[in-house]
Amino acid sequence: MAHAVSTSAGAHGGHDAGQGGGHHGDHHDQESLKMFGFWLFLITDVILFGTLFATFVVLRFNTAAGPTPAELIELQGIIISTFILLTSSFTSGIAVLEMNKGNKRGLILWLAITALLGASFVYLEVTEFMHLVHEGAAIGTSAYWSAFFTLVGTHGLHVSLGLVWMIALMLQLSRRGITPVTKRKVNIISLYWHFLDVVWIFVFTIVYLMGVM
């Protein structure tokens, strides 16, 4: 009888362990699937920006006898914006390092600094758009300015969405702390932010430097 009870308990324990392992495996599979979904999203974004860049290059001389970028774009302000965004990429990397150390306060602090820099970038971009429109270069002025506002504005929209995402993540971190789920989310937002920085380098080079020069 004792042997039967022991065997039954062992079988029950093995069943529970199997269930635990199954739940753990399911959770791991869900996390991997979500990460895969993010990479698919990033690939579609690469295609989107590639199309916008190609369109801009084709239309870059079609100003319809209207204002040209060399006349209106103030490169000094764009350089400041570029420095701010690249700095935010650096601070987001520090946030990941703090997360890997298990420092929740440091992680939230550096994410907040990154968000503040990102918000400053968006503010400067909106200010630039208002200046251009005031000077007579709106999205409907010519094919060039349509391509310009669409490309630069799409990047700015991505940065704005990243800011909303980052703020929501900071709130979640303050409530739940550093967990496997929040770790994945921090890694994803950091990759997304680095991607936007790389895109901006192309925008700065192709749209602004080539446009002004």
From TrEMBL:
Region entry Disordered, spans: 1-28
CDD domains (alphabetical): Ubiquinol_oxidase_III (cd02863)
Sequence similarity: Belongs to the cytochrome c oxidase subunit 3 family.
Spans traversing the lipid bilayer: 36-58, 78-97, 106-124, 144-171, 191-211
Name this protein carries in UniProt: Cytochrome bo(3) ubiquinol oxidase subunit 3
Organism encoding this protein: Paenibacillus prosopidis
UniProt-listed PANTHER family: CYTOCHROME BO(3) UBIQUINOL OXIDASE SUBUNIT 3, CYTOCHROME C OXIDASE SUBUNIT III
Keywords recorded for this protein, A-Z: Cell membrane, Electron transport, Membrane, Oxidoreductase, Transmembrane, Transmembrane helix, Transport
GO BP of this protein: aerobic electron transport chain
Function: Cytochrome bo(3) ubiquinol terminal oxidase is the component of the aerobic respiratory chain of E.coli that predominates when cells are grown at high aeration. Has proton pump activity across the membrane in addition to electron transfer, pumping 2 protons/electron.
Localization (cell): Cell membrane
Keyword field contains Oxidoreductase: yes
Annotated ranges, domain Heme-copper oxidase subunit III family profile: 36-212
InterPro entries: Cyt_c/ubiquinol_Oxase_su3, Cyt_c_oxidase-like_su3, Cyt_c_oxidase_su3-like_sf, Cyt_c_oxidase_su3_a-hlx, Cyt_c_ubiqinol_oxidase_su3, Ubiquinol_oxase_su3_dom
UniProt keyword annotation of Hydrolase present: no
Gene Ontology terms for molecular function: cytochrome bo3 ubiquinol oxidase activity; cytochrome-c oxidase activity
Recorded topology in the membrane: Multi-pass membrane protein
Subunit relationships: Heterooctamer of two A chains, two B chains, two C chains and two D chains.
Pfam families, alphabetized: COX3
GO cellular component: plasma membrane
